[in-house]
Amino acid sequence: MKQSNSEALFVEAKKYFPGGVNSPVRAFKSVGGNPLFFERGKGSHVWDADGNEFVDFCCSWGPLILGHANDAVTEAICTTAAKGASFGAPTREENELASFILQHHKYLEKIRFVSSGTEAAMSAIRLARGYTGRDKVLKFEGCYHGHVDALLVKAGSGLATLGTSSSAGIPESYVKETIVVPLNDIEAFDAAIEMYRGQIAVVAIEPVPANNGLLIQDGVFLRHLREVCTREGIVLLFDEVISGFRLGFEGASGYYGIQPDVLAFGKIIGGGMPVGAYGASAEIMSQIAPDGPVYQAGTLSGNPVAMAAGLAQLKELVKPGFYEELERKTVKMVSAIQAHADQKNYVFRIFNMGSIFWVSFSKEKAIRRMDEIPENSGQLFAPFHRFLLERGIYLGPSGYEVGFVSAAHTDADIDKAIVDFCDALDHVYNK
Predict the structure, then answer these.
(1) What is 4-69+321-430's CATH topology?
(2) Which residues contact 22 (CB under 8 A, 6 or more apart)?
(3) How many whole angstroms separate alpha carbon 146 and alpha carbon 143?
């Protein structure tokens, strides 16, 4: 695979950006080598600066559910941008996208647009604190809620514990307001609730954790969170930045049939443009300024270009059979790859939920917590990832990240992926 142009661009990028990237996950540190620089994408395929072509299963980390440069989305972006990219004032496009989302999502009554998933989660946490008058946040080990200070916290020792920061630059006083417990552990959760009774404003969770592997949760656990939060007057926040509109239009909330108090979204509602949102009941959202005392603002919130792109994309998602076809293709791919691994007795499992999938170098049929992921997964993923690159398959450069199937992936793409994934496994286990 040619890489001279990408390598030259990376050398230049390191002069401008820390590590040569504008987001750490773009670096290839966990898989070796240097990142590829992409120049264009169309449908399910992308091309890098050296002209290499790949079937893309990263999909910009999920939002491109229709694939790259979808005609309807591109037309909406160009038409709207030609009328003005930003006004810092209300536009019709905000109303249209909000109306469409609320019309098709029964777990929401009002919504507020922001510019990223991190901003959505941060604002949702502030809303929960303002609504309850409490300070502490309870989150789960293995769930990611953006780079918010109070949420970049990992668990310490013990079942129910105050955490420790997972990043430099976060004051200890912030960390003391965050409680971290293991996923899928009702005993630990209940212990934390008892220990900090009356102090917890919000329980925040990715209902389908998909930033540290695909840690599919038991519905019994999620329903227990709902019951306890209702009993204790705690806001239950579902962070659906990845699962929202991806598992179905109503995301994990609809999949499990659970009504959270607040939901956070991102990625997919912008059709590839920077966007985020949070929403809740009309009562809770009435706490947000200018109606209420919880302040949150953003100059580019509800940007008309992102709104128009999002509406064009979401209109495709409500068409009959859309999600069923996505899942059919994903299951076809996952089932064939797993059958090959089982036949060869490889220590390997490929999980999926809807059109989200994750490869794990483990024999476990269910991995619900970070500490259940084998320690050698990264070492095995690196050669697996490199082999797939050489074959023209692009995955995100981390074994802890998930992959995505889009509507643009054809059965021919899936057939190619099956062959290449199986050959990659043979390479890893027989080299």
Answers:
(1) Aspartate Aminotransferase, domain 1 (3.90.1150)
(2) none
(3) 10
Q: What is the pLDDT of residues 148-185, one digit of tens each?
A: 777 776 644 343 444 455 667 777 777 788 999 999 99
Sheet with 393-394, edge to edge strand ranges: 38-42, 45-48, 53-56, 393-394
Paired sense of beta strands 136-140 and 178-181, if any: parallel
CATH classification of 71-317, choosing from 2.60.40.10, 3.40.50.300, 3.40.640.10, 3.40.50.2300?
A: 3.40.640.10
Tokens of 130: 């303002």
Structural contact between residues 112 and 301, judged by C-beta atoms closer than 8 angstroms: yes
Annotated catalytic residues are: 144, 239, 267
**Nearby residues of 62 by Cβ (< 8 Å), 6 or more positions away:** 242, 246, 267, 268, 356, 402, 404
CA distances from 337 to 244, 332, 350 (A): 26, 9, 8
The whole model's pTM is what? 0.94
**Residue 328: how many CA atoms within 13 Å on its side-chain side?**
9
Q: How far apart are CA 55 and CA 73, in angstroms?
A: 20
412: left (phi over 0), alpha (psi -120 to 50) or beta: alpha
Phi, psi at residue 11, to the nearest 5°?
-60, -45
8 A C-beta contact, residue 252 and residue 214: no
| Helices (H) then strands (E): counts for the chain | 13, 17
Residue 75 makes CB contacts below 8 A (sequence gap 6+) with 312
Over the stretch 237-294, which tens digit does the pLDDT of each residue have?
Answer: 999 999 999 999 999 999 999 999 999 999 899 999 999 999 999 999 999 999 999 9
Q: What residues does each domain of the chain span?
A: 4-69+321-430, 71-317
